[in-house]
Amino acid sequence: MGTVLVIDFGSQYTHLIARRIRQLNVYSEVVEATMATPEDLDVDAVILSGGPSSVYDKGAPKNDVLLNALVERNIPTLGICYGMHLLTYSLGGKVTRGNKEYGISQMKISEDPIFKGLEEFQRVWMSHGDSLEKLPEGFRIIATSDRAPAAIRHAQKNIYAFQFHPEVNHTENGLKILDNFLDIYGISRDWNMEDFIDASLEKIKAQVGDEKAVIALSGGVDSSVCATLTAKAIGKNLFAVFVDHGLLRKGERQFVKEKFENMLNLKIVDAKDRFFERLAGVVDPEMKRKIIGNEFIRIFEEEARTIGARYLVQGTIYPDVIESGSTKNADVIKSHHNVGGLPDTLDFTGLIEPLRELYKDEVRVLGDKLGMPEEIVFQHPFPGPGLAVRITGPVNDENIHIVREASAILDEELRGAGIYDSVWQSFAILFEDRVVGVVGDQRKYGRFVGLRVVQSVDAMTANFVKLPWEVLEKVSTRITNELEDVVAVSYFVSHKPPQTIEPC
Ligand code: XMP
Q1: Which of 8, 69, 104, 142 lies at a CB distance of 3.0 to 4.6 Å from 112, suitable for a disulfide?
Q2: Same fold? 3-184, 193-377
Q3: 3-state SS, one letter per residue, for 295-306
Q4: Annotated catalytic residue 165
Q5: CA–CA–CA angle 269, 274, 278 (5° rounding)
Q6: Can you spell out the DSSP letters for 128-174?
Q7: How far does residue 139's CA lie from ligand 1's centre (Å)?
């Protein structure tokens, strides 16, 4: 089987590289830079990721032994951003601090098989502080941006390096360029989702054996697909626990009950009071996430004890891991509750996370392959901490009611306009700040709701959706009419980055 190893130097996008390679039907996995050894290089190609460091930083991730082995054994190698700097720096090139580029750049390419099928000018995504000033011996420039070399290659050895990021969607032909890289080195395209399912089933069976396991089912895409996959592996020994923390979307509890009660061993736990008590007065979203994550896990422990389950199954996916800063060289963006919220000690023999390496769109392909219904697999993602992270103020009945109803109105109107299914996510946010309104000729210092509707492929980057004005107007009018405390509605018009999808 063709295999590409991605060496992680801490970029937010490292796993996206592996995901793109899998998308091109080649098996790919990630290894953390300082842990990788020459023994790991029994693969068809290696990609060195980007990262937040400069090669001149104290403590910047490096691995000379690995780089030397790569070059000596002439393994097909692609360095991206920091990966390019480190590679060229260690081969005697010169990297300069500064000259930074951030965002979309225009790249002019010259003829090279890596750019096969592409036009002379390409839109690429850049995100770098340092840049390459002098090439090491044997290299030549094959593409340039306004400011610096954008791509280089070695004349004899199997090495390419890019300043831009081919793995992000903002690079218009990024996937094609990676495809060309695999073609140049004749890497066989023999990986697919069925292989992933078979391997996962084997792994889960081996890990759980004849024991019982409990899964945290939220009814969202990830946990539903995870539950279906795990149930396929261990059948009736899987027990699904759905916790109603009082922070769910409108109608969600009923939806989960209807969809799953005949498919899984399902238990619904009423825990609203417990969560609201723990969250009383808390406004910091990270704190809310931690509290909710902790409370969740305590409930599962209690349920598992009753059931006699020794394993906890979670639908954690890769963006949860990376944005929680759980990889060694990356920064914390947000602690997604099923990762960052976990307490230090777990009362389980083992934690099983079969989707940990996957992105949401891959999870959807998996769900589809497992024969799951579309309304589960293609629903909008919803964060585990629920509506608690869709309000900037404290969790209480009033705040949760407003944000739940406002979101339901937005979704209803988007469905009516035929837009809901074509966007990644749509929801309302309730701000704690008040704004002045005028209602029935009287001044009203009222509530303020924000709307966020984004398009994305994998949630790593996202664009706000340019909704028709009439739809926005209708949603706004309905929200201010039907929720009497709300006097203002705004719309987020920022992409990710710099904003994240969830504003809290
Ligand atoms: P951000 O806001 O990080 O969101 O751009 C990326 C995707 O992850 C979802 N999200 C979460 N999911 N727990 C979750 O289970 C969380 O704490 C959390 N925060 C964000 C978000 O809805 C989007 O789809």
Answers
A1: 142
A2: yes
A3: HHHHHHHHHHHH
A4: yes
A5: 140
A6: ESSEEEEPPTTEEEEEE-SSSEEEEEESSSSEEEESS-TTSTTSTTH
A7: 41
Closest atom of ligand 1 to 360 CA is 24
Residue range 193-377 in CATH 3.20.20.70:
no
> Beta 77-80 vs 45-48: how paired, if at all?
parallel
Expressed in angstroms and rounded, the spacing between residue 380 Cα and the centre of ligand 1 is 11
Per-position pLDDT tens, the chain of length 504: 899 999 999 998 998 899 999 999 999 989 999 999 999 999 999 999 999 999 999 999 999 999 999 999 999 999 999 999 999 999 999 999 877 888 889 999 999 999 999 999 999 999 888 989 999 999 999 999 988 899 999 999 999 999 999 999 889 999 999 999 999 999 999 999 998 999 999 999 999 999 999 998 988 999 999 999 999 999 999 999 999 999 999 999 999 999 999 889 999 999 999 999 999 999 999 999 999 999 988 898 888 889 999 998 999 998 777 665 655 555 555 555 454 444 445 578 888 999 998 888 899 999 999 999 888 998 999 998 999 999 999 999 999 999 999 999 999 999 999 899 889 999 999 999 999 999 888 999 999 999 999 999 878 889 999 999 999 999 999 999 999 999 999 999 999 999 999 999
Residue ranges in 308-354 assigned as alpha helix (H): 318-323, 337-340
Overall pTM surpassing 0.70 (yes/no): yes
Beta carbon of 340 within 6 Å of any ligand 1 atom: no
The protein residue whose alpha carbon is closest to atom 11 in ligand 1 is 383
Has 258 been annotated as catalytic?
no
Query: Which amino acid residue places its CA nearest to atom 7 of ligand 1?
Result: 459
Architecture of the 3-184 domain:
3-Layer(aba) Sandwich (3.40)
- How far is the centre of ligand 1, averaged over its atoms, from the C-alpha of 365 (Å)? 19
E strand or H helix that includes residue 234: helix 221-234
Contacts of 295 (CB under 8 A, 6+ apart): 245, 271, 274, 275, 278
- Which residue in the list 81, 85, 336, 337 is annotated as catalytic? 81
- Known catalytic residue: 119? no
Ligand 1 nearest-atom number relative to CA 222: 15
Determine the distance separating the centroid of ligand 1 and the alpha carbon of 266, expressed in angstroms. Answer: 25
Give the residue, by CA position, lying nearest to ligand 1 atom 24.
381
Q: Where are the domains of the chain?
A: 3-184, 193-377, 396-491
Place of tokens 């036009």: 119
Ligand 1 near 290 CB (within 6 A): no
How far, in Å, is the centroid of ligand 1 from the Cα of 335? 9
Torsion angle of C-alpha atoms 194, 195, 197, 201, degrees rounded to 10: 140
Q: Which of 154, 165, 337, 380 is catalytic?
A: 165
Query: Could you confirm whether domain 396-491 is CATH 3.30.300.10?
Result: yes
User: Which protein residue's CA is at the shortest distance from atom 20 of ligand 1?
Assistant: 383
Residue 293 beta carbon below 6 angstroms from any ligand 1 atom: no
